[in-house]
Amino acid sequence: MAHRHHHRPEGPCHFSLMSLAASRRLLLALVPLAGLWLAVSWAAGWWG
């Protein structure tokens, strides 16, 4: 049972598009966390 590799012209483009979407999703998940961390640290520094 050998694996057949299909090399299509849209292969690398599709891969970069998927990685871009994944990094965008990661960024969108990371931004609120960074904002919350900044707000908490600012509040701790302001009230402390």
TrEMBL record:
Domain of life where this protein originates: Bacteria
Lineage, top ranks: Bacteria, Pseudomonadati, Pseudomonadota, Gammaproteobacteria, Oceanospirillales
Transmembrane parts of this sequence: 26-47
UniProt keyword annotation of Membrane present: yes
Keywords carried by this UniProt record: Membrane, Transmembrane, Transmembrane helix
The protein's name in its UniProt record: Uncharacterized protein
